[in-house]
Amino acid sequence: MKISRITLSHHRLGLDPPFRAAWDSRPRRQFDASVVRIETDDGLVGIGSGDPMPGFVGHEELFLGQDPRDLDRHLRIIDNLSFHYGRCWPLELALSDLVGKIARQPCWRLLGGAQPRLPLYASSGAAREPRAVAELGRRYQGEGFRAMKVRFNDPDWRTGIRQLEALRDAVGDGLEVMVDANQAWRMPWDTRPAFRLKDALQLARALESLGVCWLEEPLHRGDFEGMAALRRATTLRIAGGEMAREMHDLDQLIERGCVDVLQPDVTLVGGISGLARIARQAVARGLEFTPHTWGNGLGLMANAQLAGGIGGCRFLEFPYDPDGWTPDRRDFLLRAPLVPDQDGCLVLPDAPGLGVELDHERLAATTRGTEMPVAVAEAPRRGGVRRLLDWLRA
Asked: CB–CB of 218/238 below 8 Å?
């Protein structure tokens, strides 16, 4: 069995009304998603999604003609490409999907099958006033969720404390509450500095009395020393790692004692097979592992497959912020959106691979430019630009 074809397509869903994310000063008027398909010579197709993989075109020959099951080899190549260009990890998701389809098993079973039903935390995204946060908490509770995440977006963290106080008054101890300080990274146009250690420590101590489950991304992503010091100084769990670009960075978070909860994302670093090693390492060191999943439904399912295979996931992130960020918007690539059961859990599918299907009509309607084959095994090996010109003339 050999890889015979790789196809990459880019899609855009218009958002009307726009979604106003707490971490983004610009309203989001569209949602972009890319899909990579890897086909074998016997007709199987693996799918993945994530970043648009800039720089990948021109390197297809590194995979064509190879056995898709050689994940260790492919992982090293994707790691190399992601260092030199953009994040190419959607390729690994498509390969993992293929491996599951070849084995006729879901990915979570191939990884160990430890947790087929994952409790979810409703991950809100918009900035809100205290009363609105309280109303949202009641809504989540009524829909069966047992946990939610609140976003702090004001430079003065005391504003967030008032949100949490209103939430606790509304729901009592009926919801576990996570706080995301969103300090590890910024949008390209956002020049605000991240919290300093003493700011983050004041915030953490204020959160201790409010029964918060964890404090996420309280410092700049590169401040390993500060994260470790903060973790030692508070009883609050410290979480991080969501936007890591290198698996080495995740190793550092573990080895230097920076976090209690490790949160990488398979669409951004490592893929399923690479992060499986990291996850087992974290769990062996007594840490919690729960992936970051703020993306589309295909990425959410890939992260869920990993979490379910490894097990021990207290709560998995479920991006859901009515009415601005709904499963229909988030999962527009899929035939059916991912939804929790009545107990606020995601039941992992028994279908092989990632266990989801693309909505081809919706993809066709949202394609940014005509979908084109990036690589076909039988095509002559020539430069990416020449291949594109030949395709356009055909």
From this structure: yes
Pair 223, 181: CB distance under 8 Å: no
pTM over 0.70: yes
Nearest to 21, CA basis, from 299, 319, 268, 332:
319
Asked if 49 contacts 37 with a C-beta cutoff of 8 angstroms, the reply is: no
Q: From its phi and psi, is residue 311 left (phi > 0), alpha (psi between -120 and 50) or beta?
A: left
pLDDT digits (tens, 9 = 90+) for 97-151: 999 999 999 999 999 999 999 999 999 999 899 999 999 999 999 999 999 999 9
- Domains (ranges, CATH) in the chain? 3-106+356-393 (3.30.390.10), 109-347 (3.20.20.120)
146 CA to centre of own chain: 21
Element containing residue 390 per DSSP (H, E): helix 384-393
CB 79 within 8 A of CB 59: no
Q: pLDDT by residue (tens digit) across 159-171?
A: 999 999 999 999 9
